[in-house]
Amino acid sequence: MHGNPLLILLCNMRDISFARKTNSDVLGALAREVERTKFYSTKDHSGEESTIVGFDERMLLHEEVHTKGQIHAVEKTSSVRIWYLSGDTYTNQHSSDAAKLAAAICSDLATTIFKGEAKNGFALVRPPGHHAGVSKSTGFCLHNNAAVAASAAKEMSAKKILILDWDVHHGNGTQEIFDADRSVLYISIHRFDRGKFYPPTGAADKVGVKGAKGYSVNIPWNRAGVGDCDYLSAFKHIVIPIARQFSPELTIVSAGFDAARGDPLGLCDVTPRYYAEMTSMLASICGKLLVILEGGYNLRSISASAKAVVEVLLGGDPAGVRKLEPSISGLETIREVLRHPK
Ligand SMILES: [Zn+2]
């Protein structure tokens, strides 16, 4: 028997505004919207349950996620008012603690779900994580939260973990961390625009390295405006069949909502109803689902999308979706992906 159907942990530290686009306003808007579902109160399950005490030690134990040098570089930013870890990733003196708390929350939620103490979890965290690689913080990301969560589950003896990344940007950090690891299947759906969209990684032929070829799956869209029909087709023809074959013990969603309708960076067109449908399809894979917030730059879009996801995690049925055919360009991408080894 599972305990809580859903456990939401909120990274609610004050003054974590390390970058204008990834500040605590996002968390406040999401928390308020989720509370409007009337099902759940984030107040009862705030970030107090996770702490950063002793977390350095835990991060270092997960050597395959980040190098000691990367952890040290983030740590050092706490002594200066502003610092640039890369051209787009700047910090203030609170950023390092916020990043540690975000990673700790994801680690704790992964452990809780894997042990069966909660069926699902939603980590409302900032900063996001999926661009943070083995030795570099970039793309507003300091530590890789999804990778830390996967490593925590592996520490608990998980042998197979699926990370599904539907953020509109390729999770280059996550793929780098697990590119040679057969125990983590990484599937990313993102805009690619033939290498012109940030980051210029995630082509369909990048399927993993060494003995893990086929354990990274990239679904790269080559245009703006990609919407429900293409996402649903990618799920039906690629994500779900591969995920079922892999049969994970835990599914982690790198849930950026910057492919949502109205997002000024992603310029795509995924609606809340289809985020709900994708969540429901993923929940059917192994029943243990951890959703981690990544990017998203329109408060209204991310709030409505996150609410739709939470309602499914709480057991709600997504409102019926229309069976839509993929666009011609979407179909080309799906065919290209299917040509590579899985
Ligand atoms: Zn993104």
From TrEMBL:
Which protein are we looking at?
histone deacetylase
Question: Which GO terms of the cellular component aspect does the record hold?
Answer: cytoplasm; histone deacetylase complex
Q: Which UniProt keywords apply?
A: Chromatin regulator, Hydrolase, Nucleus, Repressor, Transcription, Transcription regulation
The protein's required cofactors = Zn(2+)
SUPFAM superfamilies from the UniProt entry = Arginase/deacetylase (SSF52768)
Q: Name one GO biological process term.
A: epigenetic regulation of gene expression
Localization annotation: Nucleus
Q: Does the keyword Transcription apply?
A: yes
Q: Which family does it belong to?
A: Belongs to the histone deacetylase family. HD type 2 subfamily.
Question: Top enzyme class of this protein?
Answer: hydrolase
Lineage of the source organism? Eukaryota, Viridiplantae, Streptophyta, Embryophyta, Tracheophyta
